[in-house]
Specification:
729 residues; alpha+beta; Immunoglobulin-like; 5-stranded antiparallel β-sheet; 10 strands; 9% strand; protein transport; GAE_dom; membrane; Clathrin/coatomer_adapt-like_N; AP-1 complex subunit gamma
Length: 729
């Protein structure tokens, strides 16, 4: 059959061969007893399934062959079950009793078949039914069976987390095994069981790890001079889980971690793997300060490694701890800045993030010089991130207002097309509030405008400044810049160049037109020229620009007596949002700016009535330590806002957490961006998701929520919950 399929010259010919073979296999399956051909036919069908053709009609044959007393048929039957069945199909439940019988079989190979199948496709119901049998096999004397049982126990605990406590005693007893393969599987079980059940094993793990570190050469386990690095990595990962939030366990492993960190050879890849796991463990547990400094120094050595992958993971780890161990990371600032010159884009991105995190009031000038140098030559995909980071750093740590303005202008000159939209109003506000630098700023921006009009943000700010402070530009009395005489025609020529340039967007032309109009009250000899420029744009194709021009023309014709008052200088802008906070008043961290802004504007909000009822918080989902609550608030006659809040009460972190919602077709749904996708262990933080609903037809409202996330062990989880009532509406 295989030869016939491979010799087919076309797809159609191949389908014909397979259809004939499948028809013959069906006929053989219908026979009551076809002798030794049963396993032969099922093997054929499995090959057909591997090619991607339908083979579901062989499921019941798999069930029959699993129940056969012959090992040859049982083996193919179990293989077919693993390939053709899954936990969602009812046929999988039919083999539960056969698996239970084979787990008690006297032949270790028959037991192995049953264990492998259960570990591959066992459903939650099967796992609950067969968990006692697996616990019994974990205590067997046969090491071959214990390995298979350990793998099966891992699958069971991942399917039914509550069963972890059942396997905890067996897992603790398996730590006495001398076989390294069995120990590795034992640690896989320990990762998944309930942490308090195995927390008492820390002394045993420390002893095993010490034995590996101080042991002599063992040809069976030695890899590049390191004694069984695979087992060492597993032990360190388990110690990291057990030491997290546990001070007693952390104290018990501090000396061991220091010994591993100082005695492991860092010149080989396997040694770096062990050191990396050691560093992660030190940073994750409640370790001593000296040990944390040692871990940071190891990461500093990784930064000097020629392997880019090692440099990348070093910077990723340093990024995680720069907030808590800032001074220790600061010692490696020079090496981190050097990584900005790396050719690898991923390394360069990590180096940029870490460099921005290392900026402080004491090194702002030095670090900003390096960051501005990087901005001038960085890849286009990193330019926006670099510019935004420089703005934030300058806002928080600017040593003076002039330095702050110069830095932002440098960024706009270098990467004005890649900055965020709020950059222009933020800079305008900064300039407005520093009255002593108005003359200096307008002269500098005027020269920048003459040099380059391709940077839209720079051009917009320059036009605004020329319109506001054109009188200071024309006086030419600024002592902080080189003396230069700017005439009225020069200023108008610069603005007219912007208006006529094909590189100017409608928004930029709007800035230039308004600046031209404002100059009409700041100059004396060229008002007619300004009136002529403005009148031209009264018939502009752009509606916004046309409207401005028509209004300005009306100001000239009908309300000329009011023109000076309407076009006077803008008043000082109040600081009323987190994005408008400069370096002198910013908090200690960027993430603290938003709460500070809320407190500042709090008194301006109307006081709520004392008898106002707050919407109730209703739990809608709780399973495996993950809970979801719901708050409903009515916003209009047909509109409402639903706030979903998720928390994680387990001892392991949850990542890639997402919520998806579905409602009836007549209901309009809009899901806003979640607050994050990471749920730390033990409810340390929560993830909120706001959902806006509009129910114009007033139908019976229902919502189905899909919850999906990845556990710390890497397994994916998905579940669905339906909400039939919405309290508070």
């Amino acid at each position: 059959m295989i030869r016939a399929i491979r010799s087919a010259r076309t797809q159609c010919e191949e389908r014909g061969v397979i259809q004939r073979e499948c028809a013959a296999i069906r006929a053989q399956f219908r026979q009551v007893d076809n002798g030794g051909a049963r396993s032969h036919n099922l093997a054929k069908l499995l090959y057909v399934h591997m090619l991607g053709y339908p083979a579901h009609f062989g499921q019941m044959e798999c069930v029959r062959m699993i129940a056969s007393p012959r090992y040859s048929e049982k083996r193919v039957g179990y293989l077919g079950a693993m390939m053709l069945l899954d936990e969602k199909q009812d046929a999988s439940l039919l083999i539960t009793n056969s698996i239970k019988n084979d787990l008690a079989h006297s032949n270790q190979y028959v037991q192995s078949l049953a264990l492998c199948t259960l570990a591959c496709m066992g459903s939650a119901e099967m796992c609950r039914d067969l968990a006692p049998e697996i616990d019994r096999l974990l205590r067997a004397s046969n090491s071959y069976i214990k390995k298979k049982a350990a793998l099966c126990a891992v699958h069971i605990v991942r399917k039914v987390h509550d069963l972890g406590e059942l396997f905890a005693p067996a897992a603790r007893s398996l730590l006495a095994e001398k076989n390294h393969g069995q120990l590795i599987l034992t640690f896989s079980v320990c990762y998944n069981v309930f942490v308090p059940c195995v927390s008492q094993t820390v002394p045993d793990l420390v002893q095993i790890m010490k034995g590996l570190v101080i042991s002599g050469y063992s040809p069976e386990h030695d890899v590049a001079g390191i004694s069984d690095p695979f087992l060492q990595v597993r032990i360190l990962r388990l110690l990291r889980i057990l030491g997290r939030h546990n001070e007693t366990a952390s104290d018990a492993m501090n000396d061991l971690l220091a010994q591993v960190a100082t005695n492991t050879d860092s010149t080989k890849t396997v040694g770096n793997a062990v050191l990396y796991e050691t560093v992660l463990t030190v940073l994750d547990i409640k370790s001593e300060s000296g040990l944390r400094v040692l871990a940071v120094n190891i990461l500093g050595r990784f930064l000097l490694n020629n392997d880019r992958n090692i440099r990348y993971i070093a910077m990723t780890s340093l990024q995680r701890i720069v907030g808590t161990d800032h001074n220790a990371v600061q010692r490696h600032r020079g090496t981190i800045v050097d990584c900005l010159k790396d050719q690898d884009a991923s390394v360069k991105r990590r180096a940029l993030e870490l460099s921005l995190a290392l900026v402080s009031a004491s090194n702002i000038r030095t670090m900003m010089k390096e960051l501005l140098l990087f901005l001038s030559s960085c890849p286009p995909e990193l330019r926006a991130q670099a510019a935004s980071g420089i703005f934030h750093a300058a806002e928080r740590y600017a040593p003076s207002q002039r330095w702050h303005i110069d830095t932002i202008l440098h960024v706009l000159t270098t990467a004005g097309g890649d900055v965020r939209d709020e950059t222009v109003p933020n800079l305008i506000q900064l300039i407005t509030n520093t009255s002593e630098l108005h003359c200096y700023t307008v002269h500098k921006l005027y020269r920048a405008l003459l040099t380059d009009i391709s940077q839209p943000s720079l051009v917009q700010v320059a036009c605004w400044c020329i319109g506001e402070y054109g009188d200071l530009l024309l006086k030419g009395e600024c002592q902080e810049t080189e003396p230069s005489q700017v005439t009225e025609d020069d200023a108008l020529d610069a603005l007219e160049t912007v208006l006529q340039s094909h590189m100017s967007s409608p928004a930029t032309r709007g800035f230039a037109l308004t600046a031209t109009m404002k100059l009409s009250t700041r100059i004396t000899e060229n008002v007619d020229r300004i009136r002529s420029i403005v009148s031209i744009y009264g018939s502009c194709m752009d509606v916004e620009l046309q409207q401005r021009a028509v209004e300005y023309n009306a100001l000239f014709r009908k309300y000329d007596h009011m023109r000076a008052a309407v076009l006077e200088r803008m008043p000082v802008i109040e600081k009323n949002s987190s994005g408008h906070t400069n370096g002198e008043t910013a908090g200690d961290a960027v993430k603290e700016i938003q709460p500070a802004a809320v407190k500042q504007t709090g008194p301006l909000l109307p006081q709520q009535p004392a008898n106002q009822v707050h919407p109730p918080t209703v739990p809608v989902y709780e399973k495996d330590g993950v809970s979801l609550t719901l708050i409903c608030e009515k916003t209009s006659d047909s509109g409402m806002t639903v706030t979903l809040t998720a928390s994680n009460s387990t001892d392991s972190d949850i990542s890639v957490f997402t919520l998806q919602a579905a409602v009836p077709k007549s209901v309009q749904l809009h899901m806003k961006a979640p607050s994050g996708d990471f749920l730390p262990a033990r409810g340390a933080a929560k993830v909120t998701q706001m959902v806006a609903l509009n129910n114009p037809n007033k139908v019976n409202l229902k919502m189905r929520i899909r919850i999906s996330y990845n556990t710390s062990q890497g397994s994916a989880y998905q579940d669905t919950v339906q909400i039939d009532s919405f309290p508070g509406l």
